[in-house]
């Protein structure tokens, strides 16, 4: 394997120097020798991982903690044929039981190595501290999905783009424009389709994508012309809480106010799923060196606090919706919806300037595991925010939501659909669905 690894040495600064780096203005007394303890990572690592390190660390976590950690393989291999991997973390992780989900990914940009390190270190932290009462409670109430290296090809070559020279954070379809590195078409890249799959097949209350190197936490929209997102107060609250953990110099703001782009992950993610979608960018203070020490070791404690904010928001029932009821034990419940979304208008091959449409299909499922058939499913609200990007162009400053129910099916494990229901449920709401027909027919031999 080609390894573009510039930091192969075990990197340790003298203790006093570390204490000074850590303090950010706090009083330290290195001369006395009583300096603050060096920051350490949950893994104990002192240097950047290679791709092989990421893969073996995740495999080992899953093997050693099968009730807490489940490996996942994303469906699309990269342009150069590499596999993109992640892990799910929760108490009783193997049960597909409807807990709210926090999706946390790193390294859309392959040269932003701290973003992958911070993402995997947080996962290890949760697993290693799963018996701590505070962490245990969060892992009882929520599921965390971690993909530390989205752009695997870019990472092994230590460059921003993937192997088709596409910027992975310009290729998502909503509002897409043919910018110089946005890819040949919306969703042309396997890496962006992987993340779309991840978010389309789970009910992610919160989605965080980790980057370097600015001190900001960003939320939709990406373009000023789009106008504010419908959930701006909620997005700003989460982004502010995350930014506050990173430190007083970090700002929380709409992405468009930082700089305008199109085709980023958070825009599609929010407008398709209504999950609270943020981009967390970390960077050392101005003038400080950008090293493993400053960007990973010295940043991790703040990152931990930031991600715990995101996880607490995920677990908060005010930030998602609940569908509950009784179904036959061993039934599979599925929630789907399908809708058209649009790029920005751009010059098409036929010479006209118009948007391209694409279909987003959300489909997630839950296994009814309780002997009494009771289930409780934390889902995103059925009311979907209307995006600025429409069939007839950019129509900004929208305030409405589509009244577009979840289609709930109650199925046998073999996929036979026994009942279909339409469910409208708003943020913070709880609705009970009546699945009597499914219960009646579940064990009948003459159906299906
Ligand atoms: Zn980036």
**Envelope shape:** globular
Number of domains: 2
What Rg, in angstroms, do the CA atoms define?
A: 22 Å
Mean pLDDT: 92
How is the CATH topology of the largest domain named? Aminopeptidase
Assembly level? single chain
Largest sheet geometry: 8 strands, mixed
How much helicity do the residues have? 25-40%
Q: Give unreliable regions as ranges.
A: 1-34
Strand arrangement in the largest pleated sheet: 1-2-4-3-5-8-6-7
- Give the class-level CATH name of the largest domain: Alpha Beta
What's the CATH H-level homologous superfamily of the largest domain? Zn peptidases
Sheet-strand content, in percent, reads 15-25%
Distance between the ends: 50 Å
CATH architecture of the largest domain: 3-Layer(aba) Sandwich
- Based on secondary structure, the structural category is alpha/beta
Q: Bound small molecules, which ones?
A: zinc ion
Number of helices: 12
> How many β strands by DSSP?
21
Can you walk through the features of this model?
- The chain is an alpha/beta fold.
- The chain folds into 2 domains: 43-319, Zn peptidases (Aminopeptidase, 3-Layer(aba) Sandwich); 321-441, no CATH class.
- The protein has helices spanning 15-23, 51-64, 113-128, 133-141, 152-157, 190-200, 232-246, 255-258, 265-273, 292-297, 300-315, 436-441, and strands spanning 69-73, 85-89, 101-106, 143-147, 204-211, 216-219, 251-254, 276-281, 321-326, 332-342, 346-347, 353-354, 357-367, 374-379, 384-385, 389-390, 393-394, 401-402, 406-411, 417-423, 430-433.
- The strands form 6 sheets. The protein has an 8-stranded mixed beta sheet with strand order 1-2-4-3-5-8-6-7, with helices on both faces. It has a 4-stranded antiparallel beta sheet with strand order 13-10-19-20.
- Strand 16 and strand 17 form a beta hairpin.
- Helix 6 (190-200) runs parallel beside helix 9 and helix 7 (232-246) runs antiparallel to helix 11.
- The chain is globular and about 70 Å long.
- The termini are far apart.
- The relative contact order is 0.12.
- The model is unreliable at 1-34 (pLDDT under 50).
- The structure holds zinc ion.
- Zinc ion (ZN) binds at residues 108-109, 112, 211.
């Amino acid at each position: 394997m080609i390894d573009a690894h510039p930091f192969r040495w075990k990197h340790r600064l003298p203790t006093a120097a570390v204490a000074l780096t850590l303090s950010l203005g706090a009083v330290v007394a290195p001369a006395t020798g009583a300096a603050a303890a060096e920051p350490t990572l949950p893994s104990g690592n002192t240097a950047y991982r290679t791709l092989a390190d990421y893969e073996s660390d995740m495999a080992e976590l899953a093997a050693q903690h099968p009730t807490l950690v489940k490996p996942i393989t994303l469906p699309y291999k990269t342009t150069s044929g590499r596999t993109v991997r992640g892990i799910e973390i929760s108490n009783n992780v193997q049960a597909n039981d409807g807990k709210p989900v926090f999706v946390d990914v790193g390294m859309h940009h392959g040269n932003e190595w701290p973003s992958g390190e911070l993402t995997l270190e947080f996962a290890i932290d949760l697993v290693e501290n799963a018996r701590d009462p505070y962490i245990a409670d969060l892992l009882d109430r929520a599921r965390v999905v971690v993909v530390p290296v989205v752009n695997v090809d870019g990472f092994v070559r230590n460059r921003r783009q993937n192997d088709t020279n596409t910027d992975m954070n310009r290729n998502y379809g909503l509002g897409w424009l043919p910018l110089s590195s946005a890819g040949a078409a919306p969703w042309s890249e396997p890496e962006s389709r992987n993340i779309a799959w991840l978010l389309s097949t789970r009910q992610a209350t919160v989605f965080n994508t980790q980057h370097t190197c600015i001190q900001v936490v960003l939320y939709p929209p990406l373009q000023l012309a789009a106008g504010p997102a419908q959930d701006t107060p909620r997005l700003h609250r989460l982004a502010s809480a995350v930014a506050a953990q990173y430190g007083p110099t970090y700002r929380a703001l709409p992405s468009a106010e930082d700089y305008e782009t199109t085709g980023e992950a958070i825009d599609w993610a929010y407008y398709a799923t209504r999950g609270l979608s943020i981009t967390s960018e970390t960077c050392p203070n101005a003038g400080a060196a950008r090293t493993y020490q400053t960007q990973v070791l010295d940043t991790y404690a703040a990152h931990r606090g930031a991600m715990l904010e995101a996880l607490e928001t995920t677990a908060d029932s005010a930030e998602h919706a609940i569908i509950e009821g009784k179904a036959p034990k061993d039934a599979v419940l599925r929630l789907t919806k399908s809708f058209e979304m649009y790029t920005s208008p751009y010059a098409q091959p036929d010479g006209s300037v118009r948007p391209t449409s694409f279909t987003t299909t959300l489909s997630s499922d839950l296994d009814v595991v309780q002997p009494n058939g009771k289930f409780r499913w934390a889902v995103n609200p059925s009311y979907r925010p209307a995006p600025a990007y429409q069939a007839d162009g950019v129509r900004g400053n929208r305030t409405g939501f589509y009244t577009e129910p979840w289609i709930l099916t109650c199925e046998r494990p073999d996929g036979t659909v026994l009942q279909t229901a339409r469910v409208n449920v708003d943020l913070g709401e709880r609705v009970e669905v009546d699945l009597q027909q499914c219960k009646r027919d579940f064990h009948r031999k003459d159906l299906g």
